[in-house]
Specification:
The protein has about 140 residues and is an all-alpha fold. It has helices at about 10-30, 30-45, 45-50, 55-80, 85-110, 115-140.
């Protein structure tokens, strides 16, 4: 696992900015005026349903932890593969997002019988967020 040795070589500011960009992109992406209304309709929820969901921090903490770990691992892999340019980092983030994130949505949402709109909206978010994270990390590596 030589790639783990690269954790000491990553730019932590880039990781932080990639994480923040993911949060901002998600916030904007799922705003009702952007794609939030379509996404809520596709999952059969209303704004009130989502505002009154139980769990509080129990919902946000795992999501933020997963996003932080994604940014860290992306930085480690970009460093290990020496993808030290904005374009190389962005392309790598795009490829990972399409294959692993969008692919996962297609598989899981397909078997769960969820509407294709859920898959398209969630996959689109992940593709944009990981591409931007890769652009940031690649540029700052």
């Amino acid at each position: 696992m030589d790639w783990l040795s690269h954790i000491s070589q990553i730019n932590w500011l880039a990781v932080l900015l990639a994480f923040i960009s993911s949060m901002v992109i998600g916030f904007v992406w799922y705003m009702p005026a952007v794609l939030g209304r379509r996404w809520m309709a596709a999952i059969g929820k209303t704004e009130d349903d989502l505002k009154n969901i139980e769990g509080g921090a129990g919902i946000w903490v795992p999501m933020m932890l997963a996003s932080a770990l994604t940014s860290i691992l992306l930085a480690v892999l970009i460093s290990a593969l020496e993808l030290n340019t904005v374009l190389a980092g962005g392309l790598f983030g795009l490829i990972l997002a399409v294959v692993f994130r969008a692919g996962g949505h297609v598989i899981h949402n397909g078997f769960a019988g969820r509407p294709s709109a859920v898959t398209v909206i969630d996959s689109g978010h992940d593709i944009v967020a990981m591409t931007v994270a890769g652009l940031i990390i690649g540029a700052m590596q």
